[in-house]
């Protein structure tokens, strides 16, 4: 898969495992594609990466993103969907097959992705580092729904602003949903983070979502990453443990889910 896959790109297997795990159990998220890919491509995850609690969390996070995208597709006319840092995720199949949709990721990732997904008139894959400018040029400049799941923590604040500004300037209107580490979480990641198990040690965080408004985007609100109705899908004992590990007050100080829109 190439040397680049040994670092940031390799993290794509952590959420893939999580989605395959919950889908196989029949809870939280139905994702047959994740099950298929994991059965063929999955390698042995080490330590926290293979935790069922993390798998539940990844499944819930993906479900929240899915529901937000569906809502935006239903309410925005003539919208295009961009999934930045798409990895091997099957959101385009879980959510919608007819909206114009672009999945963007590093060339090595898209090469892997093309083993399992086929482009058509509605669906396109773009090989690019999102920090570059050229990848936007062939995308129609209409209303845009932008998914940034599991990507912002690998970009500095300046890089993130740059990505958001280019998107803001290209499209007629923009709506973005993005998960973000806090500064505390970024610091703690040096010691306790599943991504360490696949060789990633440098991540970034922000404490004030409004620091990204210099991009031209406006902070809208914070969303729940682990809503109660999804926690309720776990067995009783598991609900209690999960609540303490991933949905309590300390967890909320580490990891956020923010929505932005253009002015």
With helices defined by DSSP (H or I, 4 residues minimum), what is the helix count?
10
Helix content: 25-40%
How many E strands? Answer: 7
Radius of gyration: 17 Å
Distance between the termini: 41 Å
Strand order of the largest sheet: 3-2-1-4-5-7-6
Q: Note the run of SSEs as H and E.
A: HHHEHEHEEHEHEHHHE
Mean pLDDT across the residues is: 89
Largest sheet, strands/sense/barrel: 7 strands, mixed
Overall geometric form: globular
Share of residues in strands: 15-25%
Structural class: alpha/beta
List the helices and strands and how they pair.
Layout: H1 13-25, H2 32-41, H3 52-75, E1 79-84, H4 91-95, E2 100-105, H5 107-113, E3 123-127, E4 143-148, H6 157-170, E5 173-181, H7 183-188, E6 217-222, H8 228-231, H9 236-246, H10 249-252, E7 255-262
Parallel strand pairs: 1-2, 1-4, 2-3, 4-5
Antiparallel strand pairs: 5-7, 6-7
